Amino acid sequence: MRIKPPVEGDANAARRDPRHPVALPAFALFDDGARVELTILDLSYDGCRVAVAVAFLPNTLLKLSVPRLGQLEAEVRWCDGKVAGLCFKSETLQPEQSQKPRVHERVTIDGQISLRRAGRQQFQCRVFDLTPTGCKVEFIERPKVGDTIWAKFEGLDALEAEVRWVDGFYGGVEFKRPIYSAVFDLLLARIGKL
Length: 194
Prior knowledge:
By secondary structure, this protein is mostly beta strands. The chain has 2 domains: about 20-90, Thrombin, subunit H; about 105-190, Beta Barrel (Thrombin, subunit H), CATH 2.40.10. The chain has one helix at about 180-190, and strands at about 20-30, 35-45, 45-50, 60-65, 70-80, 85-90, 105-115, 125-130, 135-140, 150, 160-165, 170-175. The strands form 2 sheets. A 6-stranded antiparallel beta barrel has the order 1-2-3-6-5-4. A 6-stranded antiparallel β-barrel has the order 7-8-9-12-11-10. A hairpin with a 6-residue loop joins strand 10 (about 150) and strand 11. The longest helix has 11 residues, at about 180-190. The radius of gyration is 18 Å and the shape is elongated. Mean pLDDT is about 80; it is low at about 1-15 and about 90-100.
């Protein structure tokens, strides 16, 4: 395990997505077999801020393990004393094909999602199934295939998405950037599916 004594760091380093407060117990697992308890303090689609008992060395690779929700590859981006910022490593998806096969199994849910089209008001609608790459929804304002919309789950930031199909007021949207698996599991747990 690579650690260093607490030092002033670049805790204000820029990040891609705003983060939302949580308080989740977790572990950092290192290649040498070391395991460090930590608490996830805030979370976004691409990273998190954690409280740790020891300072982590920036650029260290680790597995972030959340009990009952799985593991996610991460990299330490910064450390300031006993608080560190982690960036989730990109997940490898199959290359795009003209007719893409479903990469992830659908999870049937009965929940709410906020949708917004460019220049329009945000509205609440039902979501029927969910994968890390998209979902089936019931539209209030029916869009056209290919339209860009923003989909937002409670407690997380909006995801840019493309309308892939429309059948009446039902349709499927594909997220421009997949939801990381650990965040997806947390979202399902919040909805009550795990």
